[in-house]
Write a structure and sequence with these properties.
This protein has helices at residues 13-21, 38-49, 93-103, 113-116, 155-163, 170-182, 195-208, 210-222, and strands at 6-12, 25-28, 57-62, 69-70, 86-91, 125-128, 133-136, 146-148, 184-190. By secondary structure, the protein is an alpha+beta fold.
Length: 223
Amino acid sequence: MPLSEIIPSSIKIDKLLNRIGEGDIKIPAFQRGFVWNQEQVLDLIDSIYNDYPIGSILLWNSLERLNSTRNIGGFLIPDREPQYPVNYVLDGQQRLSAIYATFCNDRAEAPENNQYDIDPKIFDIYFDLLEKKFLSKEDIIVDHPNIKMSSLFDIEKFFEEIANIDSKFQKAARELQSKFQNYEISIITTNKRTKEEVGIIFERINNTGTSVMSSFKCRIKTR
C-alpha cells in the first residue's frame, strides 16, 4: 500500500475550527450521534489545558459525497463545493464535536439536532482564573474572574473579556489563551479508499477500540 494513503499530521485548534467552519470535515450518517455529557467535555478541555494527549482523529478524505452526513456537534456547517474533497470522521467524533462546540463563537443549531437531542448548554464552559478550574455556566462563581472558553480564538471578544477583569488576573488569562493556541491535535487522514474499505475500517475501530489506531501508527513508523 502506498505511504500516501495514510497521512499523519498535527493541527492547532484554530486551524481545526476553520476547517470545520468551512465544511471540510463532516460526520457520516453511519456514526452514532453525540453522546458525551458535560463532565466528559470538561475533562477533555482540562486535558488540553494540561497538555495531555487526547488521542488521534481519523479522517477519510474523499471527493465522493455520501448520501447522508451530519454536522459537527449538532451545529449548522456549510457544505463544500463539489470540486473540493470532504474529510469524513471515522474516529474521534465526540472529541472533535466537543472542541468545535466549546470554542466556536458563531454557531447555530442544525435542524438535525432535534433528532439527536444535543443540549448546546453543555458546551458553555468557563475558566475560573482564581480557582484555576473549568466550570459550566451554571457553576461559575460570579465574584471570581472568569473567561468564557469560546472567546479564546476570537481576539476582539477575548480582549473584551480581559478588560472586564482585575489586572492582576490578566496575565493568567493570556497564559490560558496561549495554552490552547499552541496545543496540537493529532490527525490521521486516509485517502484512496472505497466506501467498502471505509466500512471495514469503521467496523474494526468500533470492535477493537484503539487497536486499529495503534496499527495505523505502527505501520507509519515502520515505513
